[in-house]
Amino acid sequence: MKSFWGTFLFASNIKALLTQSAFCPHRHTASVSSLNMVATNNDLNRAKKLISQAISIGAPAYNAGDIKKCAEVYRDTAKDIGPLLPSNFQTKLLSELEEKRDANYDTKAWAFRRVFDSIVEYELPLSPQDVSDQNITFEPFTSSQLSGEPVGVMDSVMGGISNGSWIAKSNIFFGQTSLANNGGFASLRWRFQNVQNWSYAKGIYMKGLKHTKAEEHTFRIILKDATCERVRLANYKAVFANPQREDQPLLIPFSVFNQMEQMGRSMDGSPAFNPLVVTEIGLMAIKPTVVGEFQLEFSEWGLYT
Predict the structure, then answer these.
(1) pTM assigned to the model
(2) How far apart are CA 260 and CA 278, in angstroms?
(3) What is the pLDDT of residues 115-151, one digit of tens each?
(4) Which of 92, 162, 258, 295 has the fewest C-beta atoms under 10 angstroms from its C-beta?
(5) Farthest-apart Cα atoms in the chain, separation
(6) Of 201, 202, 174, 206, nearest to 188 (Cα)?
(7) Cα 143 to Cα 141: distance, rounded to the nearest angstrom
(8) Beta strands in 97-249 (DSSP E)
């Protein structure tokens, strides 16, 4: 296991570096505005594929000095992917198409590329749903399970200046994310004193979920199992939000934690989350959907069966 993961991680890091260096203009993260949950994962994936194709043409053209071609390829792609995206990205792309009409080609290329990057990073979140017709049992986390204050893991590990805090009495996670120094995330982690066996449950729930900028902000729940403990900086994440301010529980099934991540990068070939040996749970606010002040709160969370 150690030899396999060591080889895999090395290859993943090299691939990431090569991928980043091949893009021009270089990646810059743009914050996004509002979400429209009508968009589907299939639509979003199709849009991302078209963006990848556009970059494969536009980036070499830009590097060769044909900035006009790069800008035009990005412009045409922006028109093609608009109907596939949540409304906030449609609005953003339309704004760029209108506002940059008289701009020079270099400015146009950069503007579209920033929006493209935010789309590539975006994931449709899980949201609260009506479960009144389902036979669900809710088992709240106990104070003995989540004992003590959570550990804050901020982007300061990368030189960033984001911050986050926790009010246990009210289940409130608040703070501010900043893009300064290539940062952009704040997270809290609860380490379990004893390894948890959650194999009897279907997933994690939250009740009374609400947060700042309901149609813009999305958050992540973080899980670690015994395998993650053997892989440096590895964990599982799922994106969630309450864009419609629904007064229903949020259900996050364990099945969505199907791929391990390392520093935000998916690790192809990694095993799915194992609820039999859970070691850590956490919450995260991260760019591109959360830039600036944020607050996430809920009345209760735990396991559902």
Answers:
(1) 0.76
(2) 14
(3) 998 888 888 899 999 998 899 999 999 988 998 899 9
(4) 258
(5) 62
(6) 174
(7) 7
(8) 138-140, 151-154, 163-167, 172-177, 185-196, 203-207, 210-211, 219-225, 234-240
Indicate the angle between helix axes 87-99 and 67-81, nearest 10 degrees.
140
Q: Are 224 and 191 in contact (CB under 8 A)?
A: no
**What's the full length of the chain, in residues?**
305
Long-range contacts of 179-184 (CB under 8 A, 24+ apart): 179/29, 179/287, 179/291, 181/155, 182/158, 183/154, 183/155, 183/156, 183/158, 183/159, 184/29, 184/155, 184/160, 184/286, 184/287, 184/288, 184/291
Name the burial class of residue 54, with classes exposed (0-12), middle (13-18) and buried (19+) by CB atoms within 10 angstroms of its CB: buried
Split at pLDDT 50, 70, 90, the class of 36 is: very low
Instruction: Identify the pLDDT of residue 124.
Output: 86
On average, the pLDDT of the chain sits at 86
Q: Report CA torsion sign: 270, 274, 278, 282.
A: positive
d(CA 117, CA 89): 11
Asked if residues 248 and 130 have their Cβ atoms less than 8 Å apart, the reply is yes
Helix (H) or strand (E) holding 7: helix 2-22
The type of residue at 214 is A
- CA 28 to chain CA centroid, nearest Å: 16
163 contacts 116 by C-beta, under 8 angstroms: no
